[in-house]
Automatic annotation (TrEMBL):
Protein's UniProt name: Fructose dehydrogenase small subunit
Gene name per UniProt: fdhS_1
PROSITE patterns assigned: TAT (PS51318)
InterPro entries assigned: FAD-SLDH_ssu, TAT_signal
Length: 167
């Protein structure tokens, strides 16, 4: 797509991309998802009752990913990576749950929610791999794609015509 040529009074630079960026789309999607969570009983319970940080993290993760169940062992490792010493990540969980239950997130809370989603879907926190096979990005396409680096069959299987799966 060629860059557009702005008029002299246009504040848009000539090399600016047209349309939404991926980041803007993701933030908008998160805002819509958060708005759909208004009234969530689980989030209200997390927001009101003090409890175990892992329980709050798992409840927030389930609400953000819209998955009824998540692997608690993976959640433990992700929470440990996100809440490393010196960070206030654990202290942010309860206010984040309150804001999600109310349907309004601040910019910092959006960043925290995106970090949680990124950790679950990519399995990576601050450049460190926390989980590989259990990263949620693979479950989205598990019906057709094999996790990268794993051979789905015997060596040289790719030389034969593919066999179509029957549903």
């Amino acid at each position: 797509m060629p860059p557009h040529s702005p008029s002299p009074e246009s504040p848009i630079p000539a090399d600016a991309p047209l349309g939404l960026t991926r980041r803007q789309w993701l933030q908008g999607t998160l805002a819509v998802a958060a708005a759909g969570l208004v009234g969530s009983q689980v989030l209200r319970a997390v927001a009101q009752a003090p409890g175990e940080p892992l329980d709050a993290f798992m409840a927030l993760s389930q609400a953000l990913t819209a998955r009824p169940t998540l692997d608690r062992a993976v959640g433990t490792r992700l929470l440990a990576a996100l809440g490393k010493p010196g960070s206030d990540f654990v202290a942010q969980l309860r206010p984040l749950a309150q804001s999600l239950a109310a349907g309004a997130l601040s910019e910092d809370q959006q960043k925290t929610a995106l970090r949680i989603l990124e950790a679950w879907y990519l399995g990576v926190v601050d450049g460190n791999v926390v989980t590989y096979e259990q990263a949620l990005m693979y479950s989205v396409v598990s019906d057709t794609l094999v996790i990268r680096t794993y051979c789905p069959n015997q060596p040289g299987f790719w030389a034969e015509p593919p066999v179509e799966r029957q549903a």
